[in-house]
Amino acid sequence: MSCKPVPQQAGQQLAMPPTDVGASLQQAKAQGAGELTVLYVAAEGFAYTNKQQQLTGVTVEIMRDFAAWLNASGQLAVSLNFVEETDWTRFYQRIVAADGGVFGLGNVTITEARAQQLQFSPAYLNNVAVLISHADIAELQNLEQLATSFAGMQPLAFSGTLHEVRIRALRDQYQPGIEIGRTGSNQQLLELVASGAWYSYVDAYNLWRAQQQGMPLRHHPVANDSGETFGIIMPLNNDWAGLMAEFFNAGQGYRNTERYQQILQQHLGAELTAILEQARLAQP
């Protein structure tokens, strides 16, 4: 791909739609029913439209399981209104600004800084962040090799994510002064890295899927970061968060159920499920 991502200006604000609103728990209890608004960013395996033109995926089905659990255990007739947002940064900003029973599905990494802006569900997935380049680049044995092995390539970041922070740290240490390219699309990021002119960080599941599709990409395990987890996000005034935590922690724990494993394997495949679950089980 010949086009170069246009660097975005710091603090750039995107046009925002009207404030997203969902029924509060207090309202739902008073009325015996409530509609929750669920914003999502489409992502293969996690929130996507299948061949039957039905919205599904890991995070979509987890939200449906949460609604079913509420209906069964709380005597509340809860319905879900799924709303797509195409820009990840705007998706995040919409959840921060939302009111009441609004939830966000965007594979958002749980961090203390973000927890000052919004609420997280308990983790629904452990992530492994991986450094990638074109397949012709030899695997790095240590990060000190980056300056020479990656000479002639530029760092590329998915704007507004922790991957951008990781790439900036590598650039600052090993390629000071080199401009960072930015993109807001995982697909474009992968295509640019596959062109041979860029290197970047992605989530392990994105690399795995790209390699399955035949993209010429090299994984550099020396730079793996497996310490992060994803959570469903909610505005600070969402009063369903306590019930969301109860849902994840009920019984043996949602992530230890056959249902959770079924969802992962159905939408991510057995091999990728094993990789991600290994990251979870390896955590202390």
TrEMBL record:
<dbReference type="Pfam" id="PF00497">
    <property type="entry name" value="SBP_bac_3"/>
</dbReference>
<dbReference type="InterPro" id="IPR001638">
    <property type="entry name" value="Solute-binding_3/MltF_N"/>
</dbReference>
<feature type="domain" description="Solute-binding protein family 3/N-terminal">
    <location>
        <begin position="38"/>
        <end position="271"/>
    </location>
</feature>
<protein>
    <submittedName>
        <fullName>Amino acid ABC transporter substrate-binding protein</fullName>
    </submittedName>
</protein>
